[in-house]
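Posting this for the archive.
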Amino acid sequence: MNSEQFIKSEKINFEHIKFNAVTKNLTYSNNQEGYEVDLAKNLINDWFNKSIKLVGLDGSLSVNITSIKINKIRKDQYYKYEINLNLKFTENNQTLTKKKIYNINSIEYGEIEGSFTLRDIENLNKNIINKSLKNINLKFLKM
């Protein structure tokens, strides 16, 4: 990318993932901290609230973010952002005494070269996190 390019925030529309449950819960068991992890958690919360839909009469869904790993490299006129997300979906149905567990992983990265602003870096980070969530959505819908 050359210095004239400006990275814009992308709007990604997620398909709904439907579960046979009446309650849902999102938890984090990841210990990494920092601004980028907080940004990822905010985008994950938004994705969870808007994209995970419940269509059952009984049961519960628990989504645990088991890992958020973020790697950044910043040098003169170069920036790379990588996120590795691991999620565990647990669907319980008390009536049928069934439990389904899905473990899904996504690794995405992006990089920019040349002259770029802090806004370009922020937009790249958000775009990569959203692409990772989109990847998780697609993997789950293919199951």
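The longest strand covers residues 60-75. Helices lie at 35-51, 118-141.
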